[in-house]
Amino acid sequence: MSTTDPQKSEPAPDKLESQESSVRERPKRYLKLALVALVAVILSTGLVLAGVLPRLARQKKITASSQAIINSIPEVSVVQVEQASASSDLQLPGDVEAIQVATISAQTTGYLRKFHVDIGDRVHAGQLLAEIDTPQVDQQLQQARADLAQAVASLGQAEANLNQAITNMEYARVTYERNKYLAQQHVVSDQIRDQMQAAYDVAKATVEAMQANINSAKAVIASNEANVRSLKALQGFQKVYSPFAGVITARNVEVGSLINPSNNTSVSTSTGTTASSATLPGAGTTPKGTNAPATGGGLFEIARIDTLRIFISVPQTFASTIKSGQVANISVRELPQKTFTGRVVRTTSALDPGSRTLLTEVQTPNSENQLLPGMYATVDLGVQAPDAPVRIPATGLIIHADGPQVAIVTNEQKVHYQKVVIGRDYGNQLDIVSGLEAGTRIIVNLADGLQEGAKVNAQAVPSPKQTSNTTNAQHESKSAGS
């Protein structure tokens, strides 16, 4: 049994009532506090919104205005100008020509008896090329020799007549002197003396005339001798020889053809055209040197090809860099793996006023005969510019009435038009030799209407060199992956 007092185990009624009332009042206090807190939060939020919202509105207006300003600035594409190399390859086209070309013509009249060479044959200096029958020249030589013999005989007759005239003159002189003495002694009359003097004068005149006849006969002999020598020389041209070593490039006659020194044209069995219209090796619009062959047919055409030459036209920009002795690399399309070495031998030292180019002759040895006259070749000259130019894309050049210009973007993002001097033109790129420095930003594909000093929004684009490097890298990676 519990010994606890019942009065002590149960609370008193008053105490129970107070506890119940405190429990009922506690939620009310919490509700009041919550309401006060809510009101405080609402008030503080209102105050914050009242201060922030106008500021946000102002900021939004400022941002909109700034964006409008930005949107009103035109956007342009710019590239950075790059420094080009001072040395570059200058490739120029030209026609390959024989170093020496000659038309072999006859210097006598007759008929072709035989030819010993034909087209494509290689000949050496002094080699017999053809033989000509000259019956007319032979007859003329015989006639000239007969005339010479007649002139020699006439000279002998004139000399005999001179001796006789001298004898007569001497007799007349002695007779005159004798009669002159006798006239002084009054043995003979003065008339006889005068007659003897006249006879002596006539004899002297006769001797002088005979001497003139001898001189004339000697002149006739000299003329006939010259005629004989000339005809013998023409007769010597019955055989035609090569003037130098080379290759026969045309034969314009057949056996039995009539040969005339004044007109050697004939139908060519080797070319099917008249010799006057036959094309010579390397013939074209390129100016030839002083040893170009004469026009007008001929029996043969011979070209010396152990050394070849190429005429090129160097632009004015590089004219000052071309020097005699400069090495040149020569290539032809038919031999893609072969490069021939030549040298600049001479220039005209004057520009062509029509094309503003310098005519330059390049020679190259051809001991193996791999190059042929008439080929189209490319001559590669290494040129060294005095100052390294800068290189820009062709789309960055602006052509105005006052000359070529570029549009520069300054550090203040403003446009400035700068005059430039163009150097070499590569098609999609240009070298600028004056007016521009490396590192400068220029506008490409410039739109019309952009004024000097206008504000722009510059957007960098890759330069042609960077684009080329990227493309090459992509190709290399693809090749490595495959």
List the helices and strands and how they pair.
Elements: H1 6-9, H2 13-72, E1 75-80, E2 82-83, E3 87-104, E4 110-115, E5 122-123, E6 128-133, H3 135-184, H4 190-236, E7 239-241, E8 246-251, E9 258-259, E10 300-315, H5 316-319, E11 327-332, E12 340-351, E13 357-365, E14 376-384, E15 390-393, E16 398-400, E17 403-409, E18 415-419, E19 421-425, E20 429-434, E21 441-444, E22 457-460, H6 464-481
Parallel strand pairs: 1-22
Antiparallel strand pairs: 1-21, 2-15, 3-10, 3-14, 4-6, 4-9, 5-8, 6-7, 8-10, 10-13, 11-12, 11-14, 12-13, 15-20, 16-17, 17-18, 19-20
Helix pairs in contact: 3-4
Fold and architecture overview:
The structure is a single chain. Helix 3 (135-184) runs antiparallel to helix 4. The protein is elongated. The model is unreliable at 1-9, 264-296 and 470-482 (pLDDT under 50). The chain has helices spanning 6-9, 13-72, 135-184, 190-236, 316-319, 464-481; strands spanning 75-80, 82-83, 87-104, 110-115, 122-123, 128-133, 239-241, 246-251, 258-259, 300-315, 327-332, 340-351, 357-365, 376-384, 390-393, 398-400, 403-409, 415-419, 421-425, 429-434, 441-444, 457-460. A hairpin with a 3-residue loop joins strand 19 and strand 20 (429-434). The protein is 38% helix and 29% strand. It is built from six helices and 22 strands. With 482 residues, it is α+β, with helices and mostly antiparallel strands. It has three domains: 92-132 and 244-384, Beta Barrel (Elongation Factor Tu (Ef-tu), domain 3), CATH 2.40.30; 135-236, Helix Hairpins (Orthogonal Bundle); 389-476, conserved putative lor/sdh protein from methanococcus maripaludis s2 fold (Beta Barrel). The strands form five sheets. The protein has a six-stranded antiparallel barrel with strand order 3-10-13-12-11-14.
